[in-house]
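Researcher: Re-running this chain for the archive, since the previous output was lost when a drive failed. Same request as before.
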Amino acid sequence: MAYGKLNQHQQAIEDHNEAIELDPQDARFYLHRGVAYSLLGNYQQAIKDCNKAIELNPKYASAYGNRGVMYAMLGNDQQAIKDYSKAIELLGNDQQAIKDYNNAIELNLQLAVVFDNRGLAYERLGNDQQAIQDLKIAARLGFTGAQDLLRNKGIAW
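Model: Regenerated structure tokens:
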């Protein structure tokens, strides 16, 4: 989203509203508008847009992962973990992406972020064992945030 880099989130919302009018069946438009809403702090509306994206495409891993972030921002770590887990399941089953080298790199990066987010949610809930397990996976997938966190805790990955 170019608007996100320019901090023009309201313009991004307006443009995605127009895109949705033109093609209300494209799940990507709802997800991208939801991300823009989240960047404005409107997590409830962001969740509604992620819900619509998932309704239109139940295998849209990014919609689950982003909705998990929104739930985490609202303090609903249990629901966030469910969404992160679903995103991991969907990303892990994308065999076509694994066959394509470029997509496999993107898949690993997305997967690492989702494992990191789920690990942090588990940590906030006091489930340190599950948190460390997920953070180790994120670290092995190359997510430097998880690597740094584990290193600071003296945990090898």
